[in-house]
Amino acid sequence: MEARGQSAEIMVAEARKAFWLMVGFLALIWAVQIVNWTFGYSLSYRYGLRAWTPSSLPDIASAPFLHWSWEHIEANSGPLFIFGFLSAYRGVARFLGVTGLIIVVSGLGAWFTSSPMTVGAGASGVVFGYFGYVLVRGAFDRHLIDIVVGVVMALCFAYQFTGLLPKEGIGWQAHLFGFLAGVLGGWLFRDRHPHAPKAPPSPNTSRSALLKELDDLGL
Q: Which terminus has fewer CB within 10 Å in the chain: N or C?
């Protein structure tokens, strides 16, 4: 019982960290959006990811923080918070590793497969990465609660799968490669320490516990 209590406390602490981490992330991209809007979205053009342009490869790191309009950032914010929180509540350190993998893979995938000189920006690749990670993490970690969460998210956000299909004017390449990176992250960052099976209580231990209970009752 004591071990379970400590485990629950750790999970609550990690969930609290995940919550504030995502609040901070959203606050950051909205602050960047205000500055970007002020300058006529010139930051998106300058620091967005320009396909097939070698000098733009470092922009893989900056593109997820930039958007093209208020509608664009509003559409990303809700799913980003939900999937980001669900990705992070098991542990912030693992979450940061998954995030880095998603940003790099989705960015490189979009850079290689988009039309030359196309400029991409937005957090949607990260959103789809978290979505993929949440869907498969339970299966790789063998945590029942995470399996349930993955199934529920797949059912509630089934429409997200349409964003993986080619569509004019949508950065589906970043969506697709972000999703694949999330699935890969679920395997690479899986729990490598399976829970040891509980040993059955010995007869002597059970008998001692019963006698102690009877003694406490005065019988």
A: N
Residue reference for tokens 């998210």: 153
pLDDT tens track for 104-158: 999 999 999 999 989 999 999 999 999 999 999 999 988 888 999 999 999 998 8
> Could you tell me where the DSSP H helices lie in 89-202?
92-113, 124-141, 144-156, 172-188
Q: Does position 218 have pLDDT exceeding 50, yes or no?
A: no
Output b/e per residue, 18-52; b: 16+ Cβ within 10 A.
Answer: beebbeebbeebeebbeebeeeebebbeebbbbbe
Collapsed DSSP state (helix, strand, coil) of residue 50: strand
Query: Which residues have a Cβ under 8 Å from the Cβ of 44 and sit 6 or more positions away?
Result: 36, 66, 67, 68, 119, 121
3-state secondary structure of 177: helix
**pLDDT digit string, tens, across residues 180-198:** 999 999 999 998 765 544 4
Amino acid at 77: S
> Strand, helix or coil at 119?
strand
